[in-house]
């Protein structure tokens, strides 16, 4: 008998009260003191003998938000003032002042990287094609003073390739362990993945990795795992998200190509999700040497539309500009995507790649349900995909979207009852296409119909396998010194950290 979590609501209403507890220093000497507010709004503690001491203002940084429960939901109204279009405006203004004052050494190269889900959302709202949106966004941003506009479908190909290789490393190690335990049946049998089983490529880092491998592209899911389930972090893929890989491309490869330092580039991501702001702020993605982040600022799809309004810009009648390099296109400048779900296609690509690399099976197409068995879950946000050989399952993958499904998945892994080798995990119900930063439909359009419409626009873009993206493959040689190099692992992979939450004054927390 098992317990199934259901009827859970992912939404937590935004609040003006930050839930991060502030340490209160109390002593017997100040218990009779009073608080005084002066005309300027300053707070002072006044002792019995009349001595006034100015009280410090509590400081909450963006990094503190990583310890806030708000970042683990799909709530879309959380405002993070240090990452907004206003910051982009400020940089562009300073650039203009530097040019006008002939201080070109103070000018920053401004780069915009746009997620394909954001392009699909804008295309749905304004009844445009994704290619029209991409070209008109390029024109819009460059008219403001931006130098380069890229598409993160390009960096996602890096993420897909690296994730697939990482999974194969883990699975081969898992196979070796299974073969030692059961040399007769070898690896062609169904088995549950034990919590204490290790998996990886055999080196020290990979020996700590485990199965099932869990997708790492969703920062809301990562924050949740780090805060509440530290035991699960070894299961999480070490491959960076497309946003952060694009950060490495821009701040390392592009900076070298342009002959400038990384801190002379201001890199902005246009994303479907507010949690991407938190991901960009992680210390792991900050260069101590150059004092700069890989992604300096993240603005959401909705914030881009606000920029349209503030600039009196009409995207429906706008001029268009040619697409820059590092945008996934054909020779005819046609936008391309990777096959699979609108959450990145991780499940589909990794399964097809593994079927070929491990089992020498070609022709598998998860999208078309060719060569695999697809089983719907108890709800639309969960499904299982199985690859069989001679009627025996050899690969079992799943997708789990939304916290109802995530909690059930975590429970299975914790109880050694998970049958999966890989799970595509996303915090938002319906996945990234329904990210909290996406555009909302008119009131007369049901939200479910809107999500389906945006998803259809996304999927109507032609697909190209990451293994056929010549620009990405060439960069593995030119930039990363090869596929298995230390440099590629340094720039394309990351690590995670369990967050210890200490409530200094739990009664002060407002829920």
Automatic annotation (TrEMBL):
Residues annotated as domain Iron hydrogenase small subunit: 444-500
Signal peptide: none
rRNA-binding keyword on record: no
Keyword Metal-binding: yes
Taxonomy, superkingdom: Eukaryota
Keywords for the protein's UniProt record, in alphabetical order: 4Fe-4S, Iron, Iron-sulfur, Metal-binding
Any one GO MF annotation of this record: 4 iron, 4 sulfur cluster binding
Protein name: Cytosolic Fe-S cluster assembly factor NARFL-like protein
């Amino acid at each position: 008998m098992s317990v199934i979590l259901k009827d859970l609501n992912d939404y937590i209403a935004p609040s003006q009260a930050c839930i991060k507890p502030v340490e209160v220093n109390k002593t017997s000497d100040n218990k009779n003191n009073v608080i005084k507010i002066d005309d300027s709004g300053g707070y002072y503690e006044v002792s019995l003998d009349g001595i006034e001491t100015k009280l410090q203002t509590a400081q909450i940084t963006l990094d503190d938000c990583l310890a806030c429960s708000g970042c683990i939901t799909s709530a879309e109204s959380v405002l993070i003032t240090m990452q907004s279009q206003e910051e982009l405006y400020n940089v562009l203004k300073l650039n203009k002042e530097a040019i006008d004052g002939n201080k070109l050494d103070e000018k920053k190269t401004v780069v915009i990287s746009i997620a394909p889900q954001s392009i699909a959302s804008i295309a749905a709202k304004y009844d445009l094609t994704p290619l029209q949106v991409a070209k008109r966004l390029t024109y819009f941003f460059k008219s403001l003073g931006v130098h380069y506009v890229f598409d993160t479908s390009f960096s996602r190909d890096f993420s897909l390739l690296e994730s697939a290789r990482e999974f194969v490393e883990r699975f081969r190690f898992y196979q070796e362990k299974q073969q030692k335990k059961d040399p007769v049946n070898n690896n062609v049998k169904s088995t549950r993945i034990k919590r204490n089983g290790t998996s990886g490529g055999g080196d020290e880092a990979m020996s700590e990795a485990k199965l099932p491998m869990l997708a790492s592209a969703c920062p809301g899911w990562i924050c949740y795992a780090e805060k509440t389930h530290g035991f699960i972090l070894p299961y999480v893929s070490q491959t960076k998200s497309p946003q952060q890989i694009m950060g490495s491309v821009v701040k390392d490869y592009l900076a070298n190509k342009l002959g400038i330092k990384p801190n002379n580039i201001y890199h902005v991501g246009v994303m479907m999700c507010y949690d991407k702001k938190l991901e960009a702020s992680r210390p792991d993605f900050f260069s101590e040497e150059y004092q700069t982040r890989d992604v300096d600022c993240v603005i959401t799809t909705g914030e881009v539309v606000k920029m349209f309004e503030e600039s009196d810009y009409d995207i429906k009648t706008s001029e268009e500009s040619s697409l820059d390099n590092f945008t996934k296109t054909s020779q005819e400048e046609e936008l391309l995507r990777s096959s699979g779900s609108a959450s990145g296609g991780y499940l589909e690509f990794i399964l097809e790649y593994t079927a070929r690399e491990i089992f020498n099976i070609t022709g598998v197409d998860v999208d078309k349900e060719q060569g695999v068995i697809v089983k719907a879950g108890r709800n639309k946000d969960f499904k299982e995909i199985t690859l069989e050989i001679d009627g025996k399952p050899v690969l079992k993958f799943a997708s789990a979207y939304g916290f109802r499904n995530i909690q059930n998945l975590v429970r299975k892994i914790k109880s050694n009852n998970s049958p999966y080798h890989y799970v595509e995990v996303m915090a938002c119900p319906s996945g990234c296409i329904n990210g909290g930063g996406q555009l909302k439909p008119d009131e007369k359009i049901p939200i479910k119909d809107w999500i389906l419409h945006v998803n259809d626009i996304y999927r109507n873009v032609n697909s190209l396998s990451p293994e056929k993206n010549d620009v990405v493959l060439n960069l593995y040689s030119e930039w990363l010194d090869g596929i298995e190099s230390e440099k590629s692992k340094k720039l394309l992979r990351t690590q995670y950290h369990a967050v210890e939450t200490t409530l200094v004054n739990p009664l002060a927390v407002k829920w």
